[in-house]
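Alpha/beta hydrolase, pasting as requested.
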Amino acid sequence: MTSVTALDEPLPAPRRRPPRPLELVGSFEFGGLDGHRLAYTEYGSGPDVVVLTHGIMFSRRMHAPLARKLAADGFRVVTLDLLGHGDSDRPADSWLYSMPAFAEQTVALLDHLGIERAVVGGTSLGANVALEVAVEAPERVQGLIVEMPVLDNAIVAGLLTFGPLLFAARFLPVTVRAVGALARRVPHGNQWVDVVTDTLDQRPAAMAALLHGVFFGRIAPPRSVRGEIRIPALVIGHQRDPIHPFGDADTLAADLPDAEFVQARSPVELRFDPARLTERITGFVRDRYER
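Structure tokens follow.
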């Protein structure tokens, strides 16, 4: 009798991890020959597109986990660094910074990538930008994801929070440079450490121009205009967040004719315990593309 050893038996096929959705970093010029460079990252591929923009002084990196989840679900996701943020150019002219201007940049991204329509979303500043895109180019918007919108109830808290930063950037620029230098020395590699260091790495003149342009311009479409936005929207509001009051999100959901409201458990739920909100966002995007 011939014996068969374990070496003669076929080895089991190695278990393969599912491939990570393709990620591509790109940039484009916005504003003609003398325009500014805007940076973006694409996750995944396909005809059904989601565009995400970030909070003030943050970067597109903050939406990387959500973008990867949506890409793994079969969507093409693009995260954009608005002017003055992240890897995009940071001019020092305050007139370049406003919510309508950021909306124009988002539409320009769609044009650059040849995207006819997309679900457009964002957090805080990005939430208001999404609303402005819906006003400026409703035919380009498949749906809205609005997390932490900033309306009238947030103005005082916003000025108290960002006013000292504007003062420091204008009159104590050495402090901004020092914080940025320290942030650049922190090793990269952790998602949220990288997000924080991106935020701290500011340039005084550009930071002052950004804060001045945003807080002394139009913060959000007025209520009469919001009532005409008939695009399906997912509005996410947070308790215990004075800069993004729950009342602003609740008011916005009531103002929009076709809005679904979701209450987050905390301002950081989508960042550190994202499963529930990510599922709601993914379901909303699926519904917009009738999957």
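Note for the archive: The chain has eleven helices and eight strands.
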